[in-house]
Amino acid sequence: MEEWVGSLWHQFITRKASTEFDLARVNFTQVSKSVGVVFRALGGDAVKRVEAASTRDYLSRRSFLQKISGDNQQLSLAWQDEDSLRLPESIAVFPEQELNADLYIWLAVLAAHHSGRFKHWAIDNQQLVADVLTQFPALKPRYQRLAQAFVKLRPNVEKLPSAEQAMEKAIVEAIINPGSVNSFPTVNYAPQAVFLWLYPAAQIDGQIQAEYGDGPDEAEEQASINSKKKDKAARKKTERVESSDSRDGMMIFRLESLFSWSEFANLDRGTDDSDDDDGEKVADDLDKITISKQQDQKSAQIKIDLDLPSSSEDDLPLGEGIKLPEWDYRKQQLVVDRCLLQPMLPKDAVAQKLPVHLQKTAKNIQAQFEQLQTMRYWLKSQPQGEELDLNAWLDFHVERQISATAEKGLYQSFRGNNRDLSCLLLADLSMSTDSHINNDMRVIDVVRDSLLLFGEALNVVGDNFAMYGFSSVKRSHVRFSLLKNFKESYDDNVRGRIQAIRPGFYTRMGAAIRQATKILVEQKSSQKLLLILTDGKPNDIDHYEGRFGVEDTKQAIVEAKQAGLKPFCITVDTDAEEYLPYIFGRYSYTVMHSPTELPVCLPQIYHRLTAH
Fold first, then answer.
1. How far is 538 from 526, CA to CA, in rounded Å?
2. pTM over 0.70
3. Record's InterPro entries (predicted)?
4. CB 435 within 8 A of CB 443
């Protein structure tokens, strides 16, 4: 009863104290795509994440009701840093929903023209607004509409303490006439939030870096906690604290209080001990998540050893590994010998026939590819050749009987219209491919079937092709699985290797692309196609997560194009539209919205790319 009454009181007082217009509220998820397009189209960093901003402490003067309800102590404001642009989780500043949506767009425009650093928050924002309106005059009506509506909602200047009145007047003037105010008075409280402006970056990060390294060169590669959820949830503020050393304490107990086997009590476990979604709810309610700095966690040390399987269970390594560079976007340079790529053969691979469930599909695809087969024909009336051209000889004999005639080409030569093409298919074998598509099939099963049908199709047409798979565990172990090289024929041994592939680890795509580029460049063909089959974004458990991986992969693609290759990406990641255009270009990728279509569509995509 007390809880019920308390919840009603909380709802009532919070609603009374709130200055927001809930009926006109616009959530970030409703406008996230359009905001991202505007931000990047107007010059914003192409690989910056556009995400929702969590609430942050904001010490401004509150009304009596706000003090009672505890409202208005934290706000979700717009800010950005070098990795992301953060916009409010929701906006209900104006009574009209259209204005709230326009405010999101306006903030994205400002962010696209701001470096993310402030010398003086108010003066810099004024100048930023003035510069944007000068560069884009068409935005003036939108801004004036927002500014006039926002100024009407500002607190009454006459009701403020005298020390704060000058500040409020200066802010209103700066909003109406950007660039007109050159100085702002100092006050004890922050002014009411100016939602039309950007704020300095907050110390908020969902990737908590560990306090210890993995090796002598791993200081900048500290492990991060990586969430696989592709939502737009705001990140929490974090801090680290020293943990108390519990080993210094003394535990006192009575030995006779322990149960014997005969006194065993079968107790039902409480729901608090179960693994459910309560942890996520608690995390959502927390304003700050505190992480212990304790470094002697045995589980973390064991995890390092278990990152790779034992040698008896792992694939078969070929050689000592290949050192490859990696692109550091912060320094804008390739770091030489940064990665170690290990060529491998799939373990327990034995020669196998094509699986029965693929044989009918393979025949249909092979029939489609027969039109791409090399066309061979006789070239007539040649000065030399393999055989005598009887028609040409007969014409020459008749003409010679009539008059003196010079000898013409009397031979025919057997020629072929060869497809001068080499293709390398690079398949992502990371652990994400172990996820289930339905009750009967995983992503890795789809990838396996796709590789088999791809091999059957290209074997019929006679094109020169190779197939490799890749995954990674940090930069020192990039796994490069050999399925078929260019010198091998496509036979049951290759089919056996493909059927032996299994999900691996992470997706360090840049190193794998660089090695595939080296292999493909060595081919003598005039056309060289690099097909990349993946199910997710470039990532690894070190610094490769996020922008670093995207930038390195983009640079690897640039290097491949400079080497004369034609890269093309095929993905089953539904979020790929957010990053693939930046990495591969607008017309160099395709997204399969249903992974089950991939086995049939992969050969068809190759057919389309090479038919001309």
1. 30
2. no
3. NorD/CobT, VWF_A, vWFA_dom_sf
4. yes
The angle at the Cα of 439, spanning 438 to 443, to the nearest 5 degrees, equals 45
Residue 402: which residues within 8 A CB-CB, separation 6 or more?
Answer: none
Q: How many CB atoms lie within 10 A of CB 152?
A: 8
Look up residue 454 and give its two tokens. Answer: 């791809």
603, 123, 31: which is closest to 369 by C-alpha?
603
Q: How many domains does the chain have?
A: 4
67/45 same-domain check: yes
Distance CA 199, CA 195 (A): 9
In a domain, 320, yes or no: no
Q: Is 411 in the same domain as 426?
A: no
| Pair of tokens at residue 565 | 């290759």
If asked whether residues 358 and 411 sit together in one domain, one would say no
Is the residue at 260 inside a domain?
no
**DSSP secondary structure code for residue 581 in this structure:** H
Both tokens of 441, joined, read 């099939």
CA atoms of 472 and 512, how far apart (whole Å): 9
Q: Do 40 and 97 meet the contact criterion of CB atoms below 8 Å apart? A: no
Spatial CA neighbour of 127 closest among 108, 104, 110, 152:
110
Pairwise CA distance, residues 294 & 242, whole Å: 7
Are 513 and 452 members of one domain? Answer: yes
Place of tokens 């050969």: 603
Q: CA torsion angle for 380, 383, 386, 388 (degrees, to 10)?
A: 70
Residue 259 counted as domain residue: no
Q: What is the pLDDT of residue 215?
A: 44
Distance separating alpha carbons of residues 48 and 111, to the nearest angstrom: 11
CA atoms within 13 A on the CB side of 446: 28
Domain that holds residue 425: 326-369+419-610
Query: In this predicted model, what pLDDT tens digit does every residue of 395-447 receive, in sequence order?
Result: 877 887 887 777 777 778 756 556 678 999 999 999 988 888 888 889 999 99
CA-based torsion, 91, 95, 97, 101: positive or negative: negative
State both tokens at 457.
């199709």
Query: How far is the C-alpha of 199 from the C-alpha of 180, rounded, in Å?
Result: 20
Residues 500 and 381 in one domain: no
Strands 333-345 and 316-317: antiparallel
CATH number of the domain enclosing 490: 3.40.50.410
- Which phi and psi (to 5°) does residue 32 adopt? -60, -40
411-417 and 387-388 beta bridge pairing? antiparallel
pLDDT (tens digit, 9 = 90+) per residue, 25-39? 899 989 988 888 899
Contact 175, 196 (CB under 8 A): yes
